[in-house]
Amino acid sequence: MTSIDLRTRRRHEVQDLAAGFVRRELLQTLAAANAGIAARGIGATEAGTLSISAGTEKFSISASLGNLTIRDGIAGSGVVVSMDDAALSDLFQDVVSLGWLQMMGRLELQSGSLERLVRWDPVIVALRDGVPVYDGRPGDPGSKLSGRDLDRTFTLDDDPGETGAFLAETGFLHIRGVFSPEEMQAVSHELDAAMHCAERDDGQSWWARTEEGWYPSRILGFNRKSPTLRELLHSRRFQSLASFVDDPFVHGDIEASDMAEGLLKKIGVSEGISDVTWHKDCGPGGHSYGCAGLVVGIQLTGADQQSGELCVMAGSNRANIPGLHSVGNFGLDEVALTTAAGDCTIHCSCTMHMSRPPISKERRVVYTGFHLQPFEEEVSALPSESTRREQRAGLQDRVGAAVRAGQSDEPEN
Ligand SMILES: [Fe+2]
């Protein structure tokens, strides 16, 4: 059986933890279980010291001679952050990451760089969840890719078991010829129509600017605006994309929910959100509640170096590394997915990926996907469609502000 279900938490179990409880009780429990793993992570990433001020609590985490040290007070060196009780509570339940807290303005970075801060995200995972920080050593989950042809492509006619094994190991797939060029052209025309109707601040689009002016770079809920796309999403071909591994997947309501987005990537975007640097879609937090979902890129046009293709880090889905703002590739192989119209790319929600800006050709793609079937008891804790829609639309401002501040990470899906 091939599974990519890494879930260890349930959304309905999230609580409001007071900072005093986190400092005095939870950290002691976590250290008793995972001190060695966390200390090794601090050593491997050279994360140094993290000092946190939350509510009335002030404490620091560091490692010395392979031992984890948690002390009261703010350390004289290293990264220093302040946040409120709710942010600390969310951090220690994997609702949110340090990188995303900073990006959303919920964390104040008082000392140290953003790059230094996010080195602590995998260390927090190690301490909180007992997952070793990826250090690229032989035998590490992310390094077991020997013998894999990472440029391999698949079709829907290939053995699903083999396709699923590649997905589970590398975190991505390139499936050729799922749809026809004619079908892609029809969807593309409907994307033109949706973009024509879009307005700034309509809550249904994200915008970017080139020297020709602002344009809608992303149509949210594009499935509701494109009858051809809806037909394709209902097709056996699309549905079979979730059948390569043995986990049960679901997707949003094709007719009513915002489950697909249509993107136009123009050349020369100078402002707004279009192309994104390396990130994991679970980088904001929530890996232990939802990973791995499957993000599907339906290629309306081909994608290559000239039009800015999707790039992935092979095996990163199994590597505990920062999911936002990270620098370097941790020794993992970067793979550029050169596609034709009608191909589909698939990446796991915990796979590092990015898209390059187009150089000489525009590119069009639809992003949609599948989520692991929620556990019955947590369904009531899921956000409503209207809340999700509002959050997705509002993300443009937050992410846009971060981009303007020189932090260009953005969870694309
Ligand atoms: Fe993404």
Describe the protein.
The strands form 3 sheets. Strands 6, 7, 8, 9, 10, 11, 12, 15 and 17 form a 9-stranded antiparallel β-sheet that branches. Strands 3-2-1-4-5 form a 5-stranded mixed β-sheet. A 3-stranded antiparallel β-sheet has the order 14-13-16, with no helix packed on it. The chain starts with 18 loop residues before the first helix and ends in a 9-residue tail after the last helix. It contains 11 helices and 17 strands. The chain has helices spanning 19-45, 85-91, 98-103, 114-118, 120-129, 160-170, 181-197, 227-234, 236-239, 287-290, 385-404; strands at 50-54, 57-64, 67-72, 79-83, 107-111, 172-175, 205-210, 213-219, 249-250, 261-265, 271-272, 294-299, 310-313, 334-337, 344-348, 353-355, 363-372. It folds into 2 domains: 11-129, Nonspecific Lipid-transfer Protein, Chain A (2-Layer Sandwich), CATH 3.30.1050.10; 141-404, q2cbj1_9rhob like domain (Jelly Rolls). It is an alpha+beta fold and 413 residues long. Helices cover 29% and strands 21% of the residues. The chain is globular and about 65 Å long. Residues 406-412 have low confidence and may be disordered. Fe (ii) ion is lined by residues 279, 281, 353, 411-413.
